[in-house]
C-alpha cells in the first residue's frame, strides 16, 4: 500500500502486558512493556492481591506480544491519559486462551468496563471464542470509543467473576492497543449531506440512521472478500486486521475470486470516500458468480451475532472489471438479514460511471429475538432477474465490516459462543423477529400454542390427580411416606419425582441471577437460562416473593409437572424451595 493512502494516527500505543521491555513484533511494530511505564499506569485495590505476570504453559504460540500475560483474581485497571477529544479511538484487547501456571483457560471468567460507564465484556471466557482446538489461536476484541472532552482519560478495568468461591475465576490480558481513528470513519458526520446509513428495521425505504458520538462500537467482523487476508501492518495506518471470507462465512465454496490486473491503482479523484477507508487490496479483489455458473443461487455470507443489538453493516465495492463500461452493465440485488437492502445495486452508478473508484454502502439492522441468544446475520447478493435489462447477470462484493452498536444501557456485552442455540434457518428467524407484522404473527402463534398446551396439561393433570387419589385411598401409608419431612434446606417433596437443587446450585447456574441470562419476564417472576452439571442448558423459573402462588400450590405444581411427559411440553427437571425461594428448573 502506498504511503499516500496511510492515515497517521495522533495517538498510537501498543502494550505487551506482563513484559518489562519494548519489543518489536514480527511485523516490526514496537510493543511497549507494561511494567514501570511512564505512558500509562496500572491501578489495583490495596486491600486485595495484586496482579502478576505469567508465561503460557504451552508455547504453541510464541509470537510477540502473546508470550506474557497479566493475571489477577481481583480487579485491575489500565489508565491512559489521552489528550485527544475530537476523534474516537480503536481499543483492541488481545487474549491468548491457554493455561498459565496453575490457571486453566476454562476458569477465566471476567468483565471489562471502560471509565466505569461502558461495559465491553461480561462473563467473558476467551477460550469459548476459539473456532477449533488450535492451541495457538488468539482472540482479539476491537472497539471504537469516543473519549469525552471533560475526561481525557481512558480507564480499562478487568473484573473477575466472583460467583465461584471454591475454584475462583480470574481475569487476564495479553496485549492492549489504543489507536486514534478519523472522526467520521464510522460515526455520522452531521455536515456531510451525501452520507447516509439506511435503516432496514422499517418498511420505509428512506429511513436513515445516525451513529452519534455517544455510542460505542464493537467490530465483530471485518472481512476482505477475495483472495487473501490483509494483516494489520498492511492496513491504512490504523492496524486493522482484515480476515479472508473463506469457508467460515461463505455458504457456498464455488464463488469465484476475481482481482484487478496487476499495476492498477484506485481512483480517488472524485473524493467518493477518504483514501484510508480500506486497504487497496480490499478494493482490488472481490468475489463474483463466475463465468460458467449455470445454477442461479445467492452469494451468501453468514455471521453469528448477539440478539437484541443493532448492527451497522458496511459493504465495500469497487468496479475494476474492464468489461463493465457503462452504468447499467451490471445490476444486482442486496439482502441483509433477509431484508431487501438494494433492489438495483449498480456500483458504476454510485461512482458516477468511473471504474476503479472505491465506495461503500452502510446499513443498520436490529437483531430482535424473544430470547437472549446468538443469531445468524446473513448478507446475500442476487443477480437481477433476466427480465431486468442488464448486460451481465453477475454480482460482486469486495469487503464486509460489521459493527455492534452499544444499547441504551451503554452495554456491548453479549453471550459466549458456546452458551446458545444458533438459529441458522432464515425462515425460522423470520418467524421470531424483524418487522412488526412478523412480530405480531409470531406472538399470536405463540399464544395459541401456549393455550393449547395449558389445556392439555390441565386434562392430563386431572387424570394424574384422580389416579393418585385412588392409589392413596387403597394405600394411605404411601401418602404419609411420600410427604415425609426432611431437614431444613432440603426438599419436602418425594425424591423420586424430580431433582432437588440447592440455592447455591441455582445461583451458580445463573451467575447469581444475572440479568443477561433473563429469557422471559412475567407477573410470576423471571425466567433465566442457566447451565448445570457439565454445561447442560436449562430454563429456570424464579417466582417473585410476592407471587400469588403459595407454597402448597407450588408443591402441587411440582408434583403435577414432574409426571407430565409430552412432546409439546417442556419437561420439569427439578426445583428449589430453600428459604423463601420457589424455583422450577425445566429442560431447555
Automatic annotation (TrEMBL):
<keyword id="KW-0808">Transferase</keyword>
<dbReference type="GO" id="GO:0005524">
    <property type="term" value="F:ATP binding"/>
</dbReference>
<dbReference type="InterPro" id="IPR011009">
    <property type="entry name" value="Kinase-like_dom_sf"/>
</dbReference>
<dbReference type="InterPro" id="IPR001245">
    <property type="entry name" value="Ser-Thr/Tyr_kinase_cat_dom"/>
</dbReference>
<dbReference type="Pfam" id="PF07714">
    <property type="entry name" value="PK_Tyr_Ser-Thr"/>
</dbReference>
<keyword id="KW-0732">Signal</keyword>
<keyword id="KW-0675">Receptor</keyword>
<keyword id="KW-0472">Membrane</keyword>
<keyword id="KW-0067">ATP-binding</keyword>
<feature type="binding site">
    <location>
        <position position="541"/>
    </location>
    <ligand>
        <name>ATP</name>
    </ligand>
</feature>
<dbReference type="InterPro" id="IPR045272">
    <property type="entry name" value="ANXUR1/2-like"/>
</dbReference>
<dbReference type="GO" id="GO:0004674">
    <property type="term" value="F:protein serine/threonine kinase activity"/>
</dbReference>
<dbReference type="InterPro" id="IPR017441">
    <property type="entry name" value="Protein_kinase_ATP_BS"/>
</dbReference>
<feature type="transmembrane region" description="Helical">
    <location>
        <begin position="443"/>
        <end position="466"/>
    </location>
</feature>
<keyword id="KW-0418">Kinase</keyword>
<keyword id="KW-0325">Glycoprotein</keyword>
<dbReference type="InterPro" id="IPR024788">
    <property type="entry name" value="Malectin-like_Carb-bd_dom"/>
</dbReference>
<dbReference type="GO" id="GO:0016020">
    <property type="term" value="C:membrane"/>
</dbReference>
<dbReference type="GO" id="GO:0004714">
    <property type="term" value="F:transmembrane receptor protein tyrosine kinase activity"/>
</dbReference>
<keyword id="KW-0547">Nucleotide-binding</keyword>
<keyword id="KW-0812">Transmembrane</keyword>
<dbReference type="InterPro" id="IPR000719">
    <property type="entry name" value="Prot_kinase_dom"/>
</dbReference>
<keyword id="KW-1133">Transmembrane helix</keyword>
<dbReference type="Pfam" id="PF12819">
    <property type="entry name" value="Malectin_like"/>
</dbReference>
<keyword id="KW-0723">Serine/threonine-protein kinase</keyword>
<protein>
    <submittedName>
        <fullName>Receptor-like protein kinase FERONIA-like protein</fullName>
    </submittedName>
</protein>
<feature type="domain" description="Protein kinase">
    <location>
        <begin position="513"/>
        <end position="588"/>
    </location>
</feature>
